[in-house]
Amino acid sequence: MLKEVLTVNVDIKEEYEVKGQSGSAKMILFEGYIDCDAFKGKIMPGGVDTQRQKPGENVTLSARYIVEGTDIEGKECKLFIENNGEILEDGTIVTRPVIYTDSEALSYIEKAELTGTVEASQLGVIIHIYTNL
Predict the structure, then answer these.
(1) Residue 30 and residue 47: Cα distance in Å, rounded?
(2) How far is the C-alpha of 19 from the C-alpha of 50, rounded, in Å?
(3) CA–CA distance, 131 with 133 (Å, rounded to integer)
(4) pLDDT of 22-41, one tens digit each?
(5) DSSP for 14-69?
(6) Which residue numbers in the chain have pLDDT < 50?
(7) Cβ–Cβ contacts within 10 Å for residue 43, how many?
């Protein structure tokens, strides 16, 4: 059974793109926040999603960012999130997040098998991160 552990609200700020002969790449700079039971916090400056595509292949993505806030016990902490994934032909985005944290209460998340989905929002996207419990 999948359980949602984090919901990340991403606000896209800037995009830069290069279209070459062998493929294309895009870097998307973003801000945002997490506001859920387990953690509440703000994405620190420097969050970026890098997307690449070769002709005839799906788009691959790799987002990296740090979120600073408080855990379920009200203690200040940080999360590092690396979210690698792929945009499938039907537009569905499937990710495999990796998370590091200095929170004792959330330390289980570092060892958990995580999956993610992405949906559009008014200012960017919402990332849902799940663990298999």
Answers:
(1) 5
(2) 14
(3) 6
(4) 999 999 999 999 999 999 99
(5) EEEEEE-SS-EEEEEEEEEEEESSSEEEEEPTTEEEEEEE-TTS-EEEEEEEEEEE
(6) none
(7) 22
